[in-house]
Every structure is written in structure tokens, then in C-alpha cells.
Write a structure and sequence with these properties.
With 92 residues, this protein is mainly alpha-helical. Helices cover 49% and strands 7% of the residues. The longest helix has 12 residues.
Length: 92
């Protein structure tokens, strides 16, 4: 999924307003139309007339968002590289 897919899925998951309402050029762009169809085809969103956006995340879309949101962040771990002895370095 591209960042735009994620942005749109998160929007439909969390906000009941039209996507990019403040930017009609973006909201009506070919990319957004195509990505909306892809999210529908993948069963990540569905049409919903009760939602102000006209779409809502499906159970599958909600599960995906919840999975990503609950992933633990990686921790920085410092490790010392294995040191080779002087004798090993000269032979190989």
C-alpha cells in the first residue's frame, strides 16, 4: 500500500467527513478515485450513506488499522561487532 492508500484508509476509519474536503482538486483527482476503488476492491472500505464521507472502513479495514497501530516500535540496540584477532585478519 502506498502512503496515499494509508491516508485514505485512516480517514475513512476515523473521520465521517468527505475525504480532502478542503482540497477538491485532490479529492476528485484520478489517483484518489482509483485508490478509492482499490480500497473497495480489497474490502478495506465500503460505501455507507450514513457516513458523511460516503464510505466507512470495513471490519477487514479496521482490523488492518488496529494491527498497524498496535505494532510495537523498534528499539535502538547497540551491539559491538565481533572482533577478529590480528592472526585471523592476516589469513583471510
Amino acid at each position: 500500500m502506498t502512503p496515499l492508500h494509508w491516508q485514505m484508509l485512516l480517514h475513512y476509519y476515523a473521520i465521517a467527513e468527505p475525504y480532502a474536503a478542503d482540497n477538491p482538486g485532490h479529492a476528485n483527482s484520478l489517483a484518489v478515485r482509483a485508490y478509492t476503488q482499490e480500497l473497495l476492491d480489497e474490502d478495506l472500505i465500503r460505501r455507507d450513506q450514513k457516513s458523511g464521507s460516503g464510505y466507512r472502513a470495513t471490519d477487514r479495514g479496521e482490523a488492518l488499522v488496529n494491527h498497524i497501530v498496535n505494532l510495537p516500535l523498534p528499539e535502538k540496540v547497540w551491539r559491538m561487532p565481533a572482533l577478529r584477532s590480528h592472526e585471523e585478519k592476516s589469513h583471510g
